[in-house]
Amino acid sequence: MTGTQPAGRPRDPVVDQRIAEAAIGLFGEQGWAGFSVEAVARRAGVGKASIYLRWPTKQALLLEALRRHVQGVAEVEASDVRDELVQLGMQLMRHYLGEAGRAALRISVEADHIPGVAEHWATIRESRVLAARAIVRRAIDRGELSDATSVTLLLDTLCGAVMNHVQATPEAARAKLLPAGESYVVRLVDFLLPRTPVPGR
Q1: Distance CA 14, CA 17 (A)
Q2: 136 contact partners, CB below 8 Å, separation of at least 6
Q3: Per residue in 79-121, pLDDT tens?
Q4: Residue 146 included in any domain
Q5: At what angle do helices 151-168 and 177-192 cross, to 10 degrees?
Q6: Cα–Cα–Cα angle for 169, 175, 178, nearest 5°?
Q7: Which domain holds residue 156?
């Protein structure tokens, strides 16, 4: 729910973007407990009135920031399951290491306790789950994976490992993670996928 367009002078999209960036940065650092319109205004270099003209509540402000900076996983499709899982893993790696990475990690934990934001995050979460599960289902249909493959366990391991890899890396070393990220994701996917042909295929 974004604020309504105020009468008079048109809104400046540059200011809108600066406020949204300040909001996503503050939430990433402080979480919901430290999130306030006053703090966002100071960080963005604008008055509180400028924010309230755009978004009537701090929930609406955070929701707009999330809409701009924390997106769902794009659907991937390649010639085989290995390439698709590598693409998925790299999307997650870039997601958590991007400018909104801290906010993405926090919202995954705090969203259910923020009225008006929980529903938006649930939609993003569902889109991620569906896109990821489609990868494994296609692989089963193509005969690359056994019918007995646990979709949940495979994806939990891949997605959880990427998130843990980012979180477990000291802040000072995270800048080096993305350049080496593909190598990590490739090794992770190779570890997860079966090394023998699927029986009966």
Answers
A1: 5
A2: 81, 145, 149, 151, 154, 155
A3: 789 999 999 998 888 888 877 888 888 888 898 888 888 888 8
A4: yes
A5: 150
A6: 85
A7: 70-192
